[in-house]
Amino acid sequence: MPPPRTVETQAMAEALAPAWGWRHSGAGRAAHVEAAPEFQATTSQVCGLYPFTAGSGTPTVGTPVGRHQLWGEVVCLDPLAWLREGLVTNPGMFVLGQPGTGKSTLVKRLVTGAVATGTTPIILGDSKPDYTMLVDYLGGQVIRVGRGLDRINPLDAGPLDKARLRLTGADAEALHWEVRSRRLSLLLALATLVREARITNAEEIVLGRAIDLLDDRLDHEPTVVDVLRILEQGPAELQSATRSDSGESYRAQTRDLVFTLDLLISGSLAGVFDSPTTRPLDLDAPAISVDISRVRAAGDKLLTAAMLCTWAYAFAMVDAATALADLGAAPRRSYLGVMDELWRALRGAPGLVEHADALTRLNRAKGMASIMITHSLADLDALATEEDRAKAKGFADRSAITVLAGLPPRELARVHEITPLTGPEQQLVTSWSAPDSWQPGARHPGRGKYLIKTGERLGIPVQLSLVGAEADLYDTDQAIRGTA
Predict the structure, then answer these.
(1) How far is the C-alpha of 121 from the C-alpha of 288, rounded, in Å?
(2) Statement: residue 483 has pLDDT above 50
(3) Long-range contacts: 198-205, Cβ < 8 Å, 24+?
(4) What are the beta bridge partners of residue 337?
(5) Which of 262, 313, 452, 480 has the fewest C-beta atoms lying within 10 Å of its C-beta?
(6) Cα dihedral sign, 347-348-354-359
(7) CA separation (Å) from 482 to 25, 284, 447, 477, 479?
(8) How far is the CA of 35 from the CAs of 38, 46, 85, 187, 257, in angstroms?
């Protein structure tokens, strides 16, 4: 029989909240089940306790993305959070799945969670657009690139060049070469794209020397127009770079390069990349989206150019923020870069994969996670050369996290070469790939279902359910239903 309550014990009981809180309005009552003690051991040691053993739980760090399909546990995902907790070795994520299975829905949930936790998502070229409405809703910055709209200067280093001016000695010299390398790399990529063939070694040397001359002579960021103008002028420094002994010889050697750059200005890309940047990225914004959907109608070449310029410009901005944070001149930030429809930017011309690879390889050192999204590894087979296809496959190889939506068996056989999949895992993902009924209005079996894989670990099958405003913000089929 419990001892009788005294005045003191009664007062203490009223002062201390019960386990779930007081039973009245505004008292913070929360219905939850206290976590049970958890012990880990090998199956050899604890096999006698069956059926009271269970596999390891799902990660609880990051953005909640749904519930485990087998036992209903909440699953969280965030490449940067997983890296900080030691769950993965790099913050790269590769999302693969058929159209309509909800790839962008998962990524939008991660974008929303990133904003909530202080990470800045940057949509690196939204070509549909899928993310504009969400970024607007989150109070972010939307830049709309196209003729008569916002423009991006491919050679604009932005705050990266300003950060260089604040440094001295070896640090300033290193940042100078970084800026130069980025300008030259993107200019080569764009020239390769419009020429549909690689730039020669001699032409690369001339372009590099031209960028050096403009850096010395101009008090503003150079543009493609400036590069073309100085090539046409042919100063002694450029003639020396071509090993020419006369102006006529110089013009003969640079003739193809001049026409290539002229195509960037007056050809199919005219009016987009031939002037200073009109709206710089605002790294203080909670989220950023570069909407390039307006250039989609102009063809794949312009769309590819827009994606490449967006990637280069955004990564330069992130590098600048990192450099300024190292100087103590800005807060240290983390970023989430979303690269949707990856294959469109890579198939434009031979050699473009190499430029994209150079941009994304050092994300971990920048405090930046990257999410690459594509429909199928077969998309990468459309690349021009075997070298490009091998490098593009490396994007998936280097991503510590692979997320699979509905895919057919032939696709999973290819994925298995990169990310080992068990037989049941392959069967599960295959079951999401096609409706099992001809009934109109039936829900696609793979909508909102994903398998999260990291290395050799068993995959986590998760079911995402939309809540609140997500049903409208994440919907990519509004245009189709609106015309029905």
Answers:
(1) 6
(2) no
(3) 198/350, 198/351, 199/257, 199/260, 202/242, 202/253, 203/254, 203/256, 203/257, 205/241, 205/242
(4) 122, 370
(5) 480
(6) negative
(7) 44, 35, 20, 9, 5
(8) 9, 20, 21, 57, 67
Query: Across 22-78, where does the E strand assignment appear?
Result: 63-68, 74-77
CA 478 from centroid of its chain's CA atoms: 24
Structure tokens at 329: 């001149």
Which residues on neighbouring strands pair with residue 398, listed in sequence order? Answer: none
Q: Give the bridge partners for 76, in sequence order.
A: 64
Q: What is the pLDDT of residues 402-458, one digit of tens each?
A: 999 988 888 888 888 888 899 999 999 998 887 665 666 566 777 889 999 998 888
**Region of 301 on the Ramachandran plot (φ > 0 left; ψ -120 to 50 alpha; else beta):** alpha
pLDDT band at 230 (very low <50, low <70, confident <90, very high): very high
Number of neighbouring beta carbons within 10 Å of residue 385: 12
Alpha carbons 230 and 327: distance in angstroms, whole number: 35
Give the per-residue pLDDT at 232: 93
Residues making up the chain, counted from first to last: 484
What confidence category does residue 3 fall into, taking pLDDT thresholds of 50, 70 and 90? low
State the average pLDDT over residues 66-95: 91
d(CA 388, CA 378) in angstroms, rounded, equals 13
Cα separation values, 25 from 15, 29, 33, 430, Å:
17, 8, 21, 49
**220: enclosing H helix or E strand:** none
Residue with tokens 């793979």, as numbered in its chain: 446
User: In whole angstroms, how far apart are CA 115 and each of 16, 62, 63, 344?
Assistant: 36, 12, 10, 27
Coil, strand or helix at 63: strand
Tokens of 408: 């057919």
pLDDT at 358: 66
Please report the sign of the dihedral spanned by the C-alpha atoms of residue 320, residue 322, residue 324, residue 330. Answer: positive
Tokens matching residue 230: 């100085």
Cβ(161)–Cβ(183) under 8 Å? no
In the sheet where 460-463 sits, what is the strand order? 74-77, 63-68, 460-463, 449-453, 401-404, 92-96, 368-374, 335-339, 120-126, 288-291, 141-144
Rounded Cα distance, 305 and 348, in Å: 8
Question: So what's the pLDDT on residue 50?
Answer: 57
Amino acid at 108: K
Going by pLDDT thresholds of 50, 70 and 90, the confidence category of residue 318 is confident
The structure tokens listed for 10 are: 């009664």
- Mean pLDDT, to the nearest integer, of 282-292? 89
> Can you read off the two tokens belonging to residue 106?
């998962």
Higher pLDDT residue, 340 or 401?
Answer: 401
User: ∠ CA(415), CA(416), CA(419), 5° rounding?
Assistant: 80
Q: Name the burial class of residue 377, with classes exposed (0-12), middle (13-18) and buried (19+) by CB atoms within 10 angstroms of its CB.
A: buried
The Cβ-side half-sphere exposure at 407, using a 13 Å CA radius, reads 26
More confident residue, 247 or 235: 235
Omega within 30 of 0 (cis) for the link into 129:
yes
How many Å apart are CA 406 and CA 448, to the nearest integer?
9
